[in-house]
Write a structure and sequence with these properties.
By secondary structure, the chain is mainly α. It has 17 helices and no strands. The protein has helices at residues 12-23, 26-39, 43-67, 73-81, 84-116, 122-139, 141-172, 196-210, 216-220, 227-236, 238-256, 268-275, 281-313, 334-353, 356-386, 402-418, 427-447. The model has no long low-confidence stretch (mean pLDDT 83).
Length: 448
Amino acid sequence: MEENKLKRGLSNRHIQLIALGGTIGVGLFYGSAATIKLAGPAILLSYLFGGAVIYFIMRALGEMAVANPVSGSFSEYANKYVGPFAGYLTGWTYWFNWIVVGMAEITVVGVYINHWFPEVPQWVSALAALVIMTLINLVNVKAYGEFEFWFALIKVVAIVGMIIAGLGIILFGLGNGGVPVGFGNLWEHGGFAPNGVSGLLLSLVMVMFSFGGIEMIGLTAGEAENPQRTIPSAINNVIWRVLIFYIGALGIIMILYPWDEIGTSGSPFVLIFDKIGMPAAADIINFVVLTAALSAFNSGMYGTGRMLFSLADQGNGGNGPAFFRELSKSGVPVRGVLFSAAILLVAVFLNYIVPEKVFYYITSIATVAAVTSWTVIILTHMKFRESGGSVSGLFPMPFYPYSSYFALAALTAVVVAMAFIEGMAVAFIVAPIWFAVLFTSYKMKESH
């Protein structure tokens, strides 16, 4: 039935900025200090390597999305080319991933609001963010796209501003008495890779986590106005974004400051704006990071609603309750959005009773969920190729199948490295339980 189809309301500029927003998160503004501590200046190599891995994963997804632009994206493709359980596992794990990330982000929103209004209880800010973002996602897909466009643009302007300011300090000595800063900080404090290969490998986990959400481009294919043109363009630009926004920004920070001093006094980005004499640096960065958190939450609401709709729409009887297959007149999976919002409401109450450390543990589980999705994308693409799905050859993955083997090996290395990072080992307990629950529920669904 035509009326039960999602509406194509996302333009090229929406898709481009959604893709960009997916690669730039809170991780860059505040989390970058933690990754620098693990690898020192060599973190630049880690981002370069991680960017290459993500690029191949996105090219695999892009080839399938251009050939078959549907909203369920990789869950739908896994269901079709690997099997119903693969679609079930991927869809529900991706939904769970965004619920977890959403709970973390909604808590973080309260923290950033407290920077200006310390008297406002954290749970009030969290509840307000949940209500506003839910309402935006209930209007239509264009409303989501428009908010994501502006959220992403704020992040981009902030990073470009920081890069320009940093170059001014490095080349012309702005804020440094007119004395240009040398490049010595990149190797003078224990070398370029002070923690050796092990530091590089451990940092790769955090680097890959910071790329979580990039696969959102695939989900937008079902609602893009011209997916054959916009999806390839957005994916091909990923590698340049990584080079400019991550490597460029972090490179400048580590040229200006010794790597072992970064993060000891707030966000690395605040330091740069402070150095050129911008008194409102902390407020500016707080505003930018607040929009980054709201952007991630906005994407989470969008992604969970679409994935629940897709699961209900898959195969014979669906991989999810038929209840979620209902769309509003404007083509929004309202029930999926509202159900996800209701689950996220739990996060508002968790602000009272759960220590913040638990959120750190839960977020580490999101890394496993992201790696699971990426692994399924690569494996599904290999099956897609074997089945002759890419006969059109509209957007073929480069260097196939070697690029697929490279991506799978890198993702395996990330999972192994996680076992050696304090606080992340909890994911190895929760993930098997989650997969066991999914397997059991799938078998019960099958037997009915």
